[in-house]
From TrEMBL:
Family membership noted in the UniProt record: Belongs to the gamma-glutamyltransferase family.
InterPro entries assigned to the protein according to its UniProt record, in alphabetical order: GGT_bact, GGT_lsub, GGT_peptidase, GGT_ssub_C, Ntn_hydrolases_N
Protein name per Swiss-Prot or TrEMBL: Glutathione hydrolase proenzyme
Post-translational modifications reported in the UniProt record: Cleaved by autocatalysis into a large and a small subunit.
Lineage, uppermost ranks: Bacteria, Bacillati, Actinomycetota, Actinomycetes, Kitasatosporales
Biased amino acid composition, Low complexity: 1-25
Species name: Actinacidiphila acidipaludis
């Protein structure tokens, strides 16, 4: 029988009558409070969670570098943000090496089993309902997170995996304080979680979401981390831990009383043994004299952000009105997503024209589509980066396929000037909802990032499932250099809205002159080659909405888009760490040695 998570009451740091927005600041003794901004020396860490940020700072204080601290922060997020990350998932790691003056990337994306075909999510000739595919063994890709950690540490770290896992192991054993965001995310998944005994035992103590202010302990995950400390990642890819993952995927342990139909997966231990990360050159473009680096395919984040920036470089956004700034940002996003949908997939299976998509010539051929007084119609047809035609298109338009909306991002810098931007995920909030019994972590539903069927049968879709294939991602950890040195780095969760969040924060900071923390806090819009652009409430309720509608834009409301974090190197050598003041309950920014 699987063990259970342990929940106890925590002493609140605010009176019982405190307003809801203060709940995220309630913490057990020893847990640091959150702050969205920190400035100082010795390095910086920014994440969504105070315990995770503190884990990274602890490693920096002990002499570890940015890579060591990033892995420690990520492992802690696997405890405190288990619905968005963990060793059951994958991600993309972007690293600036101050000694070599180079940017490197690790593709730790999950892969499909080698038995997978383009019919993976098709039954009786029809695509599965998305919800049915998510909560299943069929949606689980071979996890890449632990392999990403080991790859990064082997290449650029200074500490062992066992050493940097220690803070996360301690948090899992001793517990973390449940805040309003964790409680709400649990409640939103309660119907799924209750159907899997191991998940319910951990995250639904007494059959209910853990109360705000209580302390959630995960002794099973603490033991799992301890096993990884002792045995290394071979425990997953060649050992007992991996065998438990495979057993869970192939026969999901469902409550006998559940009425949910949970499809099985076909992952094998051979699939785990064959898994490998990819070390690749980053995507690169210049923007307003800065060098912008991101993750290459299988992520579409780097190519799409780069293309949109190259398009926007044709407009003076610094002097534009706020309406024209938003209009051009929205239209550039629309165009870049049209091209992403046609051209980006796993480069091991598809001819992805990365150089063409990120080229200035291709962007120039697409930028002329944007008019100050008119709105493009979606779905917009893609261009051809191999043969750019001014204001031209190539082939039929196809709508953007759906992508889940949860992830987590962390950004780290050290005293030597190394920088990490790392986004990791298990896909949906709560992933597949399937916890590996006795192991304390949820499995991903990453394979639902594949297109189930082509968006348009007449248009080639580079993102259909295949054996060992990586599904396309929107993850966009981004590092920006100025004169060859780090200027700032950022990233965000949010599925396909990751790309637009990174693009908007970057342009709000570079073009509109907002301090990084204010650019992160600013209200967001997200256009992804769809009929309507999503707006957060602050934009929805502003006069800007009507002014944009007068040009021809259509909008739907999204209560929250993204949850960015970033770090910035200030001219005097100090580091600035920035996080969300409000989204997801607010993020946590910290530095090793705070400066007044």
């Amino acid at each position: 029988m699987a063990g259970t998570g342990t929940v106890t009451a925590a002493t609140p740091s605010a009176p019982a009558s405190a307003p809801a927005q203060s709940l995220s600041a309630r913490h057990a003794p020893g847990t640091p409070a959150k702050s969205p901004l920190a400035v100082g020396y010795g390095g910086a860490v920014s994440s969504v969670d105070a315990d995770a940020t503190a884990a990274g700072i602890e490693v920096l204080r002990r002499g570890g570098n940015a890579v060591d601290a990033a892995v420690a922060t990520a492992a802690a997020l696997g405890v405190t943000e288990p619905y968005s990350s963990g060793i059951g998932g994958g991600g993309y790691f972007v690293y600036y090496d101050a000694h070599r003056h180079r940017v490197f990337t690790v593709d730790g994306r999950e892969t499909a089993p080698h038995s997978a075909t383009d019919q993976l999510f098709v039954e009786n000739g029809k695509p599965l309902a998305f919800a049915d595919a998510v909560t299943s063994g069929r949606s689980v890709g071979v996890p890449g997170t632990a392999a990403t950690w080991q790859t990064a540490l082997d290449r650029w770290g200074t500490r062992s995996l066992g050493e940097v896992l220690k803070p996360a192991e301690r948090i899992a054993r001793d517990g973390f304080t449940v805040d309003a965001t964790f409680n709400a995310q649990t409640a939103a998944n309660q119907d799924r979680f209750k159907d899997f005994p191991a998940t319910a035992a951990l995250f639904l103590p007494g059959g209910q979401p853990p109360a705000v202010g209580s302390v959630l302990r995960n002794p099973e995950l603490a033991r799992t981390y301890k096993e990884l400390e002792a045995k290394g990642i071979g425990a997953i890819y060649h050992g007992d831990l991996g065998a438990d993952i495979v057993r869970t995927v192939r026969k999901p342990p469902v409550d006998p009383a559940a009425t949910r139909v949970v499809r099985t997966g076909d992952m094998t231990t051979a699939d785990l043994a064959a898994y490998g990360t990819r070390l690749q050159d980053p995507t690169h473009t210049t923007y307003r004299g800065l060098d912008v680096y991101g993750p290459p395919p299988s992520s579409s984040g780097g190519t799409t952000v780069a293309e949109a920036l190259n398009i926007l470089e044709h407009t003076d956004l610094a002097d534009a009105s706020q309406v024209q700034y938003l209009h051009h940002y929205i239209e550039a996003s629309r165009i870049a997503f049209a091209d992403r949908g046609r051209w980006v997939g796993d480069p091991a299976f598809e001819q992805v024209p990365t150089a063409g998509l990120t080229s200035k010539a291709f962007a120039a051929s697409r930028a002329c589509l944007i008019k100050d007084d008119a709105v493009l119609t979606s779905p917009l047809a893609p261009g051809d980066p191999a043969h750019p035609v001014p204001c031209g298109s190539s082939g039929a338009a196809a709508p953007t396929t759906y992508e889940g909306d949860n992830t987590t991002h962390l950004t780290v810098a050290d005293k030597w000037g190394d920088v990490v931007a790392y986004t990791l995920t298990i896909e949906q909030t709560g992933g597949s909802a399937i916890t590996v019994p006795g192991r304390g972590f949820l499995l991903n539903n990453e394979l639902t990032d594949f297109s189930f069927v082509p968006a348009d049968p007449a248009v080639h879709d580079p993102n259909l499932p295949g054996p060992g294939k990586r599904p396309r991602s929107s993850i966009s950890p981004t590092i920006v250099l100025k004169d060859g040195r780090p200027d700032f780095a950022l990233g965000s969760p949010g599925g396909a809205t990751i790309i637009t969040t990174v693009l908007q924060v970057l342009t709000e900071h570079v073009d509109r002159g907002l301090p990084l923390v204010d650019a992160i806090a600013a209200p967001r819009a997200s256009q992804r080659n769809a009929a309507s652009t999503e707006l957060e409430p602050a934009l929805w309720d502003s006069p800007l909405k009507a002014q944009l509608e007068a040009i021809g834009h259509h909008f739907t409301q999204n209560p929250e888009i993204g949850a960015a974090t970033g770090v910035q190197r200030l001219p005097d050598g100090r580091w600035l760490a920035a996080a969300e003041p409000v989204r997801r309950g607010g993020g946590s920014a910290a530095v090793v040695s705070p400066a007044p």
